[in-house]
Request: fold
Amino acid sequence: MDKLTMRAFEKLQKREHSLRVLRDQLGLGRITREVFRLESSKVIERYQLTDDEQRAYDLYCKVQQQRKRK
Reply:
């Protein structure tokens, strides 16, 4: 796996973790829905993939699907 693909995976993992923490806080009543929406949009924007990272991630997924089919 090349560096670009690794960076894409790291960003996606960090984004998912941050969103999971926010969902847990919402579920426990520590934050309101409005704060949840605001913070989740910030997280998504912060960990958004660049065009090159998105291309590398899509290519990696495509190759993995082809390997599973064989």
